């Protein structure tokens, strides 16, 4: 409880959480806030109209309400980023804990794999893997409620962004496994698997959480960039896809600041929230970062 | 320090750095090969344009033999591919028929090198100076402003900054061009041409720089904040050094270590920033080529770009690892 009070004491954490709750609220019930996602067929406004009373954030190049698009975009962008992070954390923690706990040859090979993903940035890998898997899966249909392209992006970001977390988890595991409670559990007859899950994993939660918040911010950045390059899905537009559509419609040279401004500010707000939360978590749990009076 | 027999001697350390770089590069090339073969359909048919062209079965078979596609995938085709890649032969583009991928990439490379090189240079120089100053005067007014702005910029996609710059400086104010690299009719090599080129370069470079600078500030500041609480800084003060001497002799060099590491960790952002910003400004570099290749599903070009990016990242890591050994004597031991 002391840690929670300390965490909530940081101004950055408060700001980040407040902002995040707002966007998660929008993402949870977009239909209740702005009605169903507008399409070119149901568009209600003029083309590229500036903000006005009916369209608070103006309209896009086919007359769709930008507020409507941005609120629905929150659902898609946040879902992609959070699911990709879950994949990244599960993979990263599993590999890091296994490598650190077993050591020896297992450690050497797993860390060699980790080194590759540590050196190669998620964006660069995703840039070449995503189009290939899009071609393999085709663009039609849905997988678990996602258009195939979004599903591919989630998995690719998740599978390419775990290396940093793995290194943190491994180094923590190396020190945890020498502690007496692990020896005690082993003497009591616990299996390796049970020691890892019941004794080591709970002690890794602070580091995983602090790293996880930064992984979300990174995932948003990569998703936005990939979608901007046209790898998103226009039928389920994320904020990055909206920026891609704005670019193709020439919004910048037409001076349509509202069209590109709204999705961009949302990306910044959410990404900044996660960075602030991650930094606050890191300050809370990392003794090195405690301010020396 | 004399060799004590603990740890590897320097030459062995350097050898290991090179070996690791070579292994990573091999993995990049292998991934390239595997990915290309996951794509459904016969590679020969893909290369010949699929069903769109009228190729007889005999011609197809002849080409398959010609390209070695009738031989076993492993080891024959893998070895062929790796050796061709090593010789700079990345095959032919799908979109630009009959053009070598390596030619297409080399043609576009100078524009990207100019953009990224200039942006990195400005971002590192300004970012590190601002960050070190903010960390040195931690808690001051400058620190608060610089740190706040850096965190915001760190969370901002570079290409969005680019679009914003176009709206403000190109569309609204009309000061700078927001599209392409040259004005029509410019004569290559003249002074006017250079000025015109630099005017076109201004907004893209600003966008990439602003997208990168935040991270350098944050890391340089954190490094300096850590350094100023170290015991050797207390010792330095006890020796009677003034603040300027403490900064130059003790703080600066130690605070630079994390910054050097960041330069390589940051490469993903550099690549993402450059490619997307080039797409905004129709800058005729690798980023523009990437977007064209993505839209046309031009896999050979995409493969070539991936190999180029992979090789650049591996080389950058290699240089950093070697530089780290020079900067930090502890690594050598």
What is the topology?
The complex is a heterodimer of chains A (293) and B (333).
Chain A: H1 2-9, H2 11-28, H3 30-34, H4 66-102, H5 104-119, H6 122-137, H7 148-160, H8 163-176, H9 180-187, H10 192-231, H11 239-248, H12 257-285
Helix pairs in contact in A: 1-12, 2-4, 2-12, 4-5, 4-7, 4-8, 4-10, 4-12, 5-8, 6-7, 6-10, 7-10, 8-10, 9-10, 10-11, 10-12, 11-12
Chain B: H1 10-38, H2 43-47, H3 57-66, H4 73-86, H5 101-136, H6 141-154, H7 158-172, H8 191-228, H9 231-238, H10 243-265, H11 267-281, H12 286-296, H13 299-327, H14 329-332
Textual characterization of the structure:
The complex is a heterodimer of chains A (293) and B (333). By secondary structure, chain A is mostly helical. Chain A is built from twelve helices and no strands. The two termini of chain A are 23 Å apart. The relative contact order of chain A is 0.15. By secondary structure, chain B is mostly helical. The longest helix of chain B is centred in the middle third of the chain and has 38 residues, at 191-228. Residues 1-8 of chain B have low confidence and may be disordered. Chain B is flat. Chain B is built from 14 helices and no strands. Chains A and B meet through helix 5, helix 6, helix 10, helix 11 and helix 12 of A and helix 1, helix 6, helix 7, helix 11 and helix 12 of B.
Quick recap:
Chain B: It is found in: Cell membrane. The complex is a heterodimer of chains A (293) and B (333). Helix content of chain A is 73%, strand content 0%.
Distance between the termini of chain B: 9 Å
Q: Considering residues with a beta carbon less than 8 A from a beta carbon on another chain, report the largest interface and each chain's count.
A: A-B, 47 and 56 residues
Give helix and strand order of chain A, one letter per element, not per position.
HHHHHHHHHHHH
Distance between the termini of chain A: 23 Å
The overall pLDDT average of chain A reads: 85
Number of helices of chain B: 14
Shape of chain B: flat
Give the name of the CATH superfamily of chain B.
MetI-like
**Strand count, sense and closure of the main sheet of chain A?**
none
Strand percentage of chain A lies at under 5%
Q: Give the H and E element order of chain B.
A: HHHHHHHHHHHHHH
Can you identify the CATH class of chain B?
Mainly Alpha
**Total number of β-strand segments of chain B?**
0
> Helix- and strand-based class of chain B?
mainly alpha
């Amino acid at each position: 409880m002391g840690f929670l009070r300390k965490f909530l004491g940081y101004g950055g954490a408060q700001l980040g959480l407040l902002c995040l709750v707002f966007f998660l609220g929008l993402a949870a019930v977009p239909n209740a806030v702005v009605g169903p996602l507008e399409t070119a067929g149901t568009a209600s406004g003029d083309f590229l109209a500036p903000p006005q009373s009916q369209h608070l954030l103006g309209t896009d190049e086919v007359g769709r309400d930008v507020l409507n698009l941005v609120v629905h975009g929150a659902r898609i962008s946040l879902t992609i980023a959070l699911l990709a992070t879950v994949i990244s954390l599960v993979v990263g923690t599993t590999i890091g804990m296994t490598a650190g706990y077993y050591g020896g040859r297992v450690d050497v090979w797993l860390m060699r794999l980790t080194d590759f993903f540590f050196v190669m940035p998620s964006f660069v890998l995703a840039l070449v893997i995503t189009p290939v898997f899009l071609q393999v899966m085709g663009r039609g249909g849905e997988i678990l409620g996602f258009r195939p392209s979004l599903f591919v992006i989630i998995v690719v970001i998740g599978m390419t962004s775990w290396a940093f977390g793995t290194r943190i988890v491994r180094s923590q595991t190396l020190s945890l496994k020498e502690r007496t409670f692990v020896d005690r559990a082993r003497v009591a007859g616990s299996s390796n698997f049970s020691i890892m899950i019941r004794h080591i994993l709970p002690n890794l939660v602070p580091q995983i959480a602090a790293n996880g918040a930064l992984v979300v911010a990174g995932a948003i950045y990569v998703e936005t960039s990939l979608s901007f390059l046209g790898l998103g899905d226009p039928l389920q537009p994320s904020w990055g896809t909206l920026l891609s559509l704005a670019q193709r419609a020439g919004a910048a040279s037409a001076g349509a600041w509202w069209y590109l401004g709204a999705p961009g500010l949302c990306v910044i707000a959410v990404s900044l929230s996660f960075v602030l939360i991650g930094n606050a978590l890191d300050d809370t749990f990392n003794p090195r970062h405690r301010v020396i009076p | 320090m004399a060799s004590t027999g603990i740890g590897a001697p320097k030459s062995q350390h350097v050898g290991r750095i090179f070996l690791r770089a070579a292994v990573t590069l091999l993995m990049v090339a292998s991934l390239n090969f595997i990915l290309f073969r996951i794509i459904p359909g016969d590679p020969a048919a893909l290369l010949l344009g699929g069903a769109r062209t009228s190729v007889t079965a005999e011609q197809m078979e002849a080409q398959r033999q010609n390209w070695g596609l009738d031989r076993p995938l492993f080891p024959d085709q893998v070895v062929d591919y790796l050796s061709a890649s090593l010789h700079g032969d990345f095959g032919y583009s799908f979109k630009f028929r009959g053009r070598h991928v390596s030619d297409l990439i080399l043609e576009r490379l100078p524009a990207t090198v100019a953009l990224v090189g200039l942006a990195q240079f400005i971002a590192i120089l300004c970012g590190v100076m601002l960050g070190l100053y903010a960390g040195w005067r931690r808690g001051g007014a400058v620190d608060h402003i610089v740190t706040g702005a850096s965190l915001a910029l760190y969370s901002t996609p570079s290409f969005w900054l680019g679009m914003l710059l176009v709206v403000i400086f190109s569309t609204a104010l009309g000061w700078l061009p927001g599209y392409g690299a040259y004005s029509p009719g410019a004569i290559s090599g003249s002074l006017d041409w250079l000025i015109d080129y630099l005017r076109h370069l201004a907004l893209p470079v600003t966008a990439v720089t602003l997208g990168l600078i935040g991270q350098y500030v944050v890391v340089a500041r954190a490094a300096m904040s850590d350094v100023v609480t170290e015991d050797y800084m207390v010792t330095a003060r006890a020796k009677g050094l003034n603040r300027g001497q403490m900064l130059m002799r003790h703080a600066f060099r130690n605070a630079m270590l994390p910054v050097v590491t960041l330069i390589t960790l940051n490469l993903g952002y550099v690549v993402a920033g450059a490619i997307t910003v080039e797409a905004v400004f129709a800058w005729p570099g690798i980023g523009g080529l990437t977007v064209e290749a993505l839209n046309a599903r031009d896999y050979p070009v995409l493969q070539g770009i991936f190999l180029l990016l992979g090789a650049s990242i591996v080389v950058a890591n290699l240089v950093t690892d070697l530089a780290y050994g020079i900067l930090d004597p502890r690594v050598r031991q």
